[in-house]
C-alpha cells in the first residue's frame, strides 16, 4: 500500500482521498483552510455527498486518513501526491491555473524522496508538461519527480460510488516508472485502466465532458423543434435510446446543463482550440444552445402570463441538479433575477441548496419582487399563481398532479425537467408546460 498525499479537499480531492483510504492506502489530505480541516477531523464533510461522511469517519477511526494544513509534512515522504485543486474559469474562458502552480511550488519545496505527482484537476492539454518542468525548476532536494495525468470522471451527487466503481480509470504517463506506480495504486479498485500518454489523458477528460454537454444541447435543440412540429422529445429520446451506438443516458432535454464542469469545460476547450488557431464548431454550438435554453421556460411563461408583477410564484428546485447543494451555473441563478425584476413574489423550495441561494438572494424584498424560502413544498404551492420546476429532486417528483390542482390558486406549472406526463397533468386539471412536448 502507498503513502498518498492529496492537495485540495473539494469534490475531486476529498472523494479521491477517502476512496484511496477505503481501499487501504495511507492518505493525508491537505487544505489551506484550517476551519475546514478541523471540521473534517471531527468527521464532518464540507460537501454534501452520499456516503462520504460515513467513509470519512470509518477511515479516520481506522487511522488510514488524516487531514492537515501542514503540507510540508504531508508531502515530504509521500510516494504519490494527487492534486485536486480547482481550475476555475477566467473571463476569456481559459482555466485559471494559479492554484495548481501554488501546490506545485509547495511540492517542489517539500519533497525529500522520489515522488510521483498526479494531477486530477481538469487542465488544458500540455499543462502537466509545464507542471513537471515547474516542480523540477523549484526542487530543493535531489530527488526524482514526475507528473502524471489522472483525470476524474465523478459526478456530483454520486461521487463516492462513481469513484469506487468507475467505468474506467485514465492514466496518462510519460515513463514506465510512473505508469507502474499508478497501476499499483489503482490495483485494489479492480477497475479497467486505460493507460495513455499525458496529453491524451488530459484531452480524454475534455473530450468526454464536452461530448456529454453536446449530447444534452443536441437533445435540447431537438426538443425545441419537437414543440414546433408536434413531436414529443421523451418519446423521441426513448426511440433513440434503443440504439446502442447512441446509448440511453444523457438524453434528457431540460433547461440546460449547469454545474462546475460542463459549462467551464466547454468554454475551456473552445478557448484551447482558438489558441491553436482552430475553431471547434460543435462545442461552440453546444455552448450557444445551452445559453438560450436556460431562460427558455421563464420566457415561455412570460408570454402566457404577460407579467409576473404581484404574482405568487412557486419555485421548486434551485441547485443545478438533485443530490447536491451546489448552485454553480444553475438555471435558477439566471431565472430568479428575471422573475424578481418583473415583480414576482417567489416562494422557493430546495432540500439542500436554499441556504446557499439565500446568501446570493437574501430573504425578503428583492428589487421589485420578493423571495421567501420554504422548507415544505406545500407552503410554496399554496395560493400560487404559477409554479416553476428547475430541479428534479425526488421530493419534487413525489408531488402528485392533484396537489398542484388542489393547492394553487391557478394550477399552472412550467416544468424544466419533464417530471410529469402531459396527459396525467391534463387529467388532474393542471395547465402544464414542459420542454419539447405539447402544452
Ligand atoms: C459532470 C460529468 O457527468 C462527470 O462525469 C464529470 O466527472 C464531472 O462533470 C466533472 O468534470 O467533474 P456533474 O457536473 O457533477 O458531472 O453533473 P452531471 O450529472 O453530469 O450533470 C450536469 C448537468 O447536465 C446538470 O445540470 C444536469 O441537469 C444536466 N443534464 C444531465 C441534462 O440536462 N440532461 C441530461 O440528460 C443529463
UniProtKB/TrEMBL annotation:
Pfam name, any one: UDPG_MGDP_dh_N
**Pathway(s) it belongs to:** Nucleotide-sugar biosynthesis; UDP-alpha-D-glucuronate biosynthesis; UDP-alpha-D-glucuronate from UDP-alpha-D-glucose: step 1/1
Q: Which reaction does it catalyse?
A: UDP-alpha-D-glucose + 2 NAD(+) + H2O = UDP-alpha-D-glucuronate + 2 NADH + 3 H(+)
Instruction: Look up the EC number in the record and give it.
Output: 1.1.1.22
**InterPro entries in UniProt:** 6-PGluconate_DH-like_C_sf, NAD(P)-bd_dom_sf, UDP-Glc/GDP-Man, UDP-Glc/GDP-Man_DH_C, UDP-Glc/GDP-Man_DH_C_sf, UDP-Glc/GDP-Man_DH_dimer, UDP-Glc/GDP-Man_DH_N, UDPglc_DH_bac
**By its UniProt entry, which SMART domains does this protein fall under?**
UDPG_MGDP_dh_C
Query: What top-level class of enzyme does the UniProt entry assign?
Result: oxidoreductase
Residue span(s) of domain UDP-glucose/GDP-mannose dehydrogenase C-terminal = 314-422
Entry GO MF terms = UDP-glucose 6-dehydrogenase activity
Stretches assigned to coiled coil? none
Record keywords: NAD, Oxidoreductase
Q: Which NCBIfam families is this protein grouped with?
A: NDP-sugDHase (TIGR03026)
Xref: PANTHER family? UDP-GLUCOSE 6-DEHYDROGENASE TUAD, UDP-GLUCOSE 6-DEHYDROGENASE YWQF
Q: What is stated as this protein's family in its record?
A: Belongs to the UDP-glucose/GDP-mannose dehydrogenase family.
List the protein's name.
UDP-glucose 6-dehydrogenase
What is the species of this protein? Peribacillus deserti
Organism lineage string: Bacteria, Bacillati, Bacillota, Bacilli, Bacillales
